[in-house]
Amino acid sequence: MPKATKSPVSFEAGLQELESLITEMEAGSLPLETALTTYQRGTELLQFCESRLVDAEQRIRVLEGAELKPFSADKE
């Protein structure tokens, strides 16, 4: 059963909860009403995670002078 509809404390916590909900739904054993509630919570978590990724990208743009640069593990 999904947790309360409060926002996760972090991106990682939101992603972990979302993955857990997906696993529950893929099992196919949830009653209809629970499945709908779980789906709704999943969409909330997806929006939360997407917004955190957009925020992170925006911060990187600021740090990189408004231009995203390819990531290279070789850079120091």
Automatic annotation (TrEMBL):
Q: What is its EC number?
A: 3.1.11.6
Keywords, in A-Z order: Cytoplasm, Exonuclease, Hydrolase, Nuclease
Q: Origin, by domain of life? A: Bacteria
Which reactions fall under this protein's catalytic activity? Exonucleolytic cleavage in either 5'- to 3'- or 3'- to 5'-direction to yield nucleoside 5'-phosphates
Cross-referenced InterPro entries: Exonuc_VII_S, Exonuc_VII_ssu_sf
For this chain, one GO molecular function annotation is:
exodeoxyribonuclease VII activity
Q: Which residues form a coiled coil?
A: none
Protein role: Bidirectionally degrades single-stranded DNA into large acid-insoluble oligonucleotides, which are then degraded further into small acid-soluble oligonucleotides.
Q: Which family does it belong to?
A: Belongs to the XseB family.
**Which NCBIfam families does the UniProt entry name for this protein?**
PRK00977.1-5, xseB
The record describes its quaternary structure and partners as: Heterooligomer composed of large and small subunits.
| Name of the featured protein | Exodeoxyribonuclease 7 small subunit
Source gene?
A: xseB
